[in-house]
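Troubleshooting log. The previous structure file for this entry was overwritten by mistake, so regenerating from the original sequence record. Sequence copied from the archived sheet and checked twice against the printout by T.R.
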Amino acid sequence: MAPHDVLNLWPDGSPNNPAEGERPRIEFYPPSSGATPHAAVVVLPGGGYNHLAAHEGEPFGRLFAEAGLVGVVCRYRVAPHYYPAPYADATRAMRLVRSVADRHGIDPERIGMIGFSAGAHLAATVGTQPALCVDPEDDLASAYDPRPNRLILAYGAVSMQPGGNPGLAENLFGPGATDAQREMVSAELHVTPATPSAFLFHTADDPRVPVANSLRFFQACRQADVEAEMHVYRSGRHGVGIASDNPSLRSWTRLLLDWLADWTDGK
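Regenerated output below.
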């Protein structure tokens, strides 16, 4: 299924467009029916900040479209494009979706963000610190808020503190990432009452991103009186995506759509 529309994140001539390879962009997967405006979910695939996992992009754009939302897959920059490039792309994506909401039949007050693994780290950073860094190329920064209205974190590498996923900092910041940088982007340390309500999914024995990442973020949400729902499954490899071929895990997307039911008219 091809996207209905594709928008480059940055205009022609912007230094944020890589000299080689694909430009950062967003791809729209709208529902085939239903009254507008629709809610939308911006999708940030994982990949450890060094690639974007294909199975965490388009399939979720289609999943949300089939549920009556607009799925918006964001192709953000990764290494060798280090911080703040991924963050600038993710915040630009949120602003751009809000700026074209009317054209795409989207309610600008019902835009969520889902991320997977490193993409969940990026989503959590935007959700907790939407003004952490403003790219000088972003001409939408003064007009549109990049904070999502809801946050969905799938096996998220949200913490760069010990016991979380500190090694991810090297892919985000480059060699020699400092303790101060790790603390700056450990999302569980920056949850406030302004953080959007969150849905978290993880497996208890994830061998790559410890479940402690999600547990810490969930606890931080509870302490800040932020609504949060967490589902920890007994077992499963990292990066399962939709998990349609795994009977013990495939129910997680149904739980997610149930959580989003008031945005999808119960579809």
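Strands lie at 5-8, 25-29, 38-44, 70-75, 106-116, 150-154, 197-203, 228-233. Archived copy saved in two places this time.
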